[in-house]
Amino acid sequence: MGKNQFKKIAKRLKRMEKAMDRLAPAKATDPDFNGADAFVWRADRFVFQGVETVNRVEISLLKGIDRTRDTLVENTRRFAAGRPANNALLWGARGMGKSSLVKAAHATVAADSEKSLKLIEIHREDIDTMPDALTLLRGREEVFILFCDDLSFDHDDTSYKSLKAALDGGVEGRPDNVIFYATSNRRHLLPRDMIENERSTAIQPGEAVEEKVSLSDRFGLWLGFHKCSQDEYLSMVEGYLGYFDLKQSLEDVRAEALEWATTRGARSGRVAWQFATELAGRG
Questions:
Q1: Alpha-carbon torsion 137, 124, 277, 243, what sign?
Q2: 247 lies in a domain?
Q3: What CA–CA distance (Å, rounded) separates 135 from 127?
Q4: CB of 48 within 8 A of CB of 33?
Q5: How far apart are CA 31 and CA 47, in angstroms?
Q6: 95-108: pLDDT as tens digits
Q7: How many angstroms separate the CA atoms of 12 and 35, rounded?
Q8: Do residues 79 and 119 both lie within one domain?
């Protein structure tokens, strides 16, 4: 083999080495939580990215979920005070304020907490990196709500096993300064047909189903959100009229508000907010 051929091979190996370095996982750095109250876990870079302005509504605007609201706020207060508290799964009807309640509860408790309470969002597709995020949070002075919105698992998705181990059951387990809140349309986080398929095909059907549904058992609090009544929906509309400082009374817009909900096929806090936004936009 000639000298020129050796040089060509050496150059190719160098390029391959650089390419492999770019593909290697990012090295974790010591996070800085002083710049914001809320963060997003960026799994591709192993960093917590600060959120300058959190997308949330005031807790007083969340109507029709009083008992659920009080339960989550109290659980969050206990956690921030260093007392025992549970992971929470907020499940049920869409548009009823599940994620809004998590963000509002954080703001309410953080405002008068002696400890620095931070909200960290972890995306559904990054759940398998949750143990890495917990490692960076473990032992810090701050306390953290780790929040996953719209959490669910589909067929052939095994990342739920990482979540089970991280929440309860792993050697390290969940750090004392971290609590996990998740929202989902599914009570058991897994589609019904997936559970039924396990029951029909497994050698030990009972054990297979238990493996799937035991994930939701990691949440000490199950907070259900159900479709609201007409009166509750109108109460939400009235609250949002005040938020936008609109001159119309509820009686002025009652018929239009009900028609708005009918055309969308649902009554919910989200629909009430969208209706009030429409009115505010008209000027």
A1: negative
A2: yes
A3: 14
A4: yes
A5: 7
A6: 899 999 999 999 99
A7: 44
A8: yes
